[in-house]
Amino acid sequence: MKTIVEPRIQYAKTSDGVSIAYWTLGSGGTPLVLLPWIPFNHVQLNWENPENRRLYERLSARRQIINYDGRGSGLSDREANFALDSHVLDLEAVLDKLGILQVDLWAFLTSGPVAISYAAAHPERVSHLVFWCSFSRGSDLLASRQSQGLVGLIDMDWELFTETAASVIFGWSAGEPARQFARYMRESGTPEMVRPSLTVLAELDVSELLPKIRCPSLVLHRRHIEYLGLNAAKLLASRIPDARLVAFDGDSTQMYSDTDAILTAVEGFLGGGEDLPSGMTAILFADIADSTALTERVGDAAFRANARDLDAGLRAVIREHAGTPIEGKLLGDGVLAVFTSARQAIAAAEACAGAGASAGMPLHLGLHAGDVIREDNNVYGGAVNIASRIAGLSAAGELLVSETVRSLARTSGGVLFEDRGRRKLKGVGEPVRVWAVVRKA
Q1: Sign of dihedral through CA atoms 320, 321, 322, 327?
Q2: Do 242 and 357 have their domain in common?
Q3: DSSP 8-state secondary structure symbol assigned to residue 109
């Protein structure tokens, strides 16, 4: 991905006279506002962080994105009123300054109530709503013993508070990334600003506004966050009409460990789910199951003839589903194909399974999505290797997909997914969660 020039920091003035720092990146599409984490955000330091910058560059490849510092944090005015309505004024000021009439909103952690309030009050101005580890009630975050203990450190030792909070967010074994985030927190806010902001947050409850939200909503959460349980996400998803909940593994609100899977889910949701994000490819492996036993049973000549017929049939099925069978890669008794749509890839894989069963030659099937290297008629790269390994895990006639593909599954009508757990794949550093595709009854 090409390097993008650092965005220019600008200012918008709220109706109550607060200066709000913001930047924009990219163009086209419905603008996406990345709502700031209250009370910690710093638009300049956000860009300087390589992990954040990678997220911004990928998101801005298809649309304009907007990041701003809420009042009391970062480069915005530090002296301000921290009531919820005031934070909504920050968002309104930036949108008005840019002349934007309709947006997508992505709420991170504590900015959920701001997104909910704005979307409920201005349904005509919000196209899509995304939540990442967020909530509608401040008590969901601040009532736990862990949260109470952290808040108690603010007045005792500011540096200890930030170091401890960062370790909780990133995990106690995170090391330098957690220390960097602690420094970020100290740059973003002060005890004098953070204390009243959290006091207001603790008393917030906007859950009665959830049924008033009219836009499609995607609720993303971690399964095992001690200080913000999954029930907070379930409340959002159950009360917002047309909302979908996706739970990721982990016990931290940081996204660095699985950014690609999270971004794939968000991009598929914001983009309508038809196409994969720019630069991403869905990779299908279909391999004849137990070809050795089949050869022994029917004879080599008959097996080869049947395999050639099946190969031709599979390639035809793949093309019918807008896929591209790879001609240049030698696969033995299998077919490799690529797609620009996860939905079409799933449909093609199911059709391939049916073709294999009809021919008496059931298939191992695996799907993954990621970046690939294209050369002549071949594709290479880690994503191709993962798709191959996932296919090798499947039973005869079964389709297994990665978490990345499953995160786009809302576009695949008629299918459900059974969790097969995190699996160690040969040649892949981290275990990969795989899911079996099953047809709805």
Answers
A1: negative
A2: no
A3: G
